[in-house]
Automatic annotation (TrEMBL):
Residues 146-243 bind DNA. This is Response regulator transcription factor. Keywords: DNA-binding, Phosphoprotein. It holds the Pfam family Response_reg. SUPFAM superfamilies: C-terminal effector domain of the bipartite response regulators (SSF46894), CheY-like (SSF52172). InterPro entries: CheY-like_superfamily, OmpR/PhoB-type_DNA-bd, Sig_transdc_resp-reg_C-effctor, Sig_transdc_resp-reg_receiver, WalR-like, WH-like_DNA-bd_sf. Residues 14-126 form the Response regulatory domain. Coiled coil: none annotated.
Length: 256
């Protein structure tokens, strides 16, 4: 059996399993517990909303098809209430994946799934949301300086987990934040989709790239509502952060 993240023993991450199938719920609860996570489980959407508040999990494993509220509605309700806990969807239908990401999910596993894959996805989400690059790794002025990324009028502060463009604060989810940090760290370079998955999602990935396309779309709505647009698609290759070729960097001190 694959072990959990190396920090699981010293930092017992809390995972909430929401699954109405008793056998699957029991299996996930058992395997996650043996791997080193602290686990709670429920079998309905309304119970999930209550348990998410009581248990305060670091990650929610959420079945899409539930007997009352479906997983998408549970996630939308959590997000509307300001709860940004990462959500890993469990779905029997591949078509649910984009809907789940749009609802505010962070990743998905399609049933029937292997336990190895589930543990891999759980560890990957926790690495980027609990131990990801947005956390400060240094202290003092030198560390703070390294934690700040600047491009044009875009500013990302890893230690504070804050993003500003043209002086305006832009709230981002943990996954959006990490994707933007990776693009900014490699500004001007074209990043292939497989590179983005490996560095932002932290696992080997093949096939469906809609998870990347969906999150790039999220970022564009928030970052590129300012002028000029910074996130560009290189058709057939990937994405890059750069200024339009016919424009120079705007002066961030200049009022708009």
């Amino acid at each position: 059996m694959t072990s959990g993240p190396s920090t699981a023993a010293s930092l017992p991450y809390r995972v909430l399993v929401v699954e109405d199938d008793d056998s699957i719920r029991t299996l996930l609860e058992s395997v996650l517990g043996l791997t080193g996570y602290t686990v709670a489980s429920v079998g309905s959407g309304r119970a999930a909303l209550l348990e998410a508040q009581r248990f305060a999990p670091d990650l929610i494993m959420l079945d899409v098809m539930l007997p009352d509220l479906d997983g998408f509605e549970v996630t939308r309700t959590l997000r509307a209430a300001g709860n940004g806990t990462p959500v890993l969807f469990l779905t029997a239908r591949a078509n649910d994946t984009v809907t789940g990401l749009r609802a505010g999910g962070d990743d998905y596993v399609v049933k029937p799934f292997g336990i190895e894959e589930v543990l891999l996805r759980v560890a990957a989400i926790l690495r980027r949301t609990a131990d990801g690059p947005h956390q400060a790794s240094n202290s003092g002025a030198e560390g703070e300086e390294k934690d700040v990324l600047l491009f044009a009028d875009l500013r990302l502060d890893r230690s504070r987990h804050e993003v500003h463009r043209a002086g305006e604060h832009i709230p981002l989810s943990p996954t959006e934040f990490d994707l933007l940090a990776y693009l900014m760290t490699n500004a001007g370079r074209v990043l292939r989709r497989i590179q983005i998955v490996e560095h932002v999602w932290h696992y080997d990935f093949a096939g469906d790239t809609r998870i990347i396309e969906t999150y790039v779309k999220y970022l564009r709505r928030k970052i590129d509502r300012f002028d000029p647009p910074l996130i560009h698609t290189v058709r057939g290759v990937g994405y890059t952060l750069r200024l339009p070729r016919d424009q120079s960097a705007p002066d961030p001190r200049r009022p708009r």
